[in-house]
Design a protein that fits this description.
heterodimer; A: about 110 residues; mainly beta; six-stranded mixed β-sheet; three-stranded antiparallel β-sheet; globular; B: about 120 residues; about 45% strand
């Protein structure tokens, strides 16, 4: 069982918006603004899409956005495109000797 | 452009020690604040952070695997090496190394290497 809880799957049609949640505790997600989101296509390495809850690295489309409320962080993808179909993982700094924890991953299907 | 690439054996036997090398370019591990981490992913499962080394040779390990892990760096060769002892079939996974910028939050990995699949079997 992963430290952070994500839905196993979400789906949406092209052009729609979807949101993926990531629930932790006050020791990780709720305690720090250090939540990241990674996108992973099959057989590929993870790619950083969001860091520090809501910041996008250079080159990541602004269709991707992040937010946090309490112990739950969220990744929203607007204007879904076929290329967005992938697995998405959240992570959070914990500040303890564990340092960083990941979510179980969410498979996004673009219908 | 920062790139990383993992190398090492694809098959190890139970109880053996695994040694993986991360060769990188586009940055120096002697630059203040920079770090390199190792993360693994068993087939079909989620990511698990293993270890991280900072520019100043400070090291961090996953508490659950600390007794089995050693991370070192060779700044002159632009390499980071991870060793994991007493390998078990449950350690079968794709092992990634990844870079972390000094100005980003801790343990924020970008970019990642392509990964190397390690199978533990007799």
């Amino acid at each position: 069982q992963s430290a952070l809880t994500q839905p196993a799957s979400v789906s949406g049609s092209p052009g729609q918006s979807i949101t993926i949640s990531c629930t932790g505790t006050s020791s990780d997600v709720g305690g720090y603004n250090y939540v990241s989101w990674y996108q992973q296509h099959p057989g590929k390495a993870p790619k950083l899409m969001i860091f520090e809850v809501s910041y996008r690295p250079s080159g990541v489309p602004d269709r991707f956005s992040g937010s946090k409320s309490g112990n739950t962080a969220s990744l929203t993808i607007s204007g879904l495109q076929a290329e967005d179909e992938a697995d998405y993982y959240c992570s959070s700094y914990t500040g303890s000797s564990t340092y960083v924890v990941f979510g179980g991953g969410t498979k996004l299907t673009v219908l | 452009q920062i790139t990383l690439k993992e190398s090492g054996p694809t098959l190890v036997k139970p109880t053996q020690t695994l040694t993986l090398t991360c060769s990188f370019s586009g940055f120096s591990l002697s630059t203040s604040g920079v770090s390199v981490g190792w993360i693994r992913q068993p087939p079909g499962k989620t990511l698990e952070w293993l270890a991280l080394i900072y520019w100043d040779d400070d090291k961090r390990y996953s508490p659950s695997l600390k007794s089995r892990l050693t991370i070192t760096k060779d700044t002159s060769k632009n390499q980071v090496v991870l060793t994991m002892s007493n390998m078990d079939p449950v350690d079968t996974a794709t092992y990634y190394c990844a870079h972390s910028y000094s100005w980003r939050p801790p343990f924020t990995f970008d970019p990642w290497g392509q990964g190397t699949l390690v199978t533990v079997s007799s």
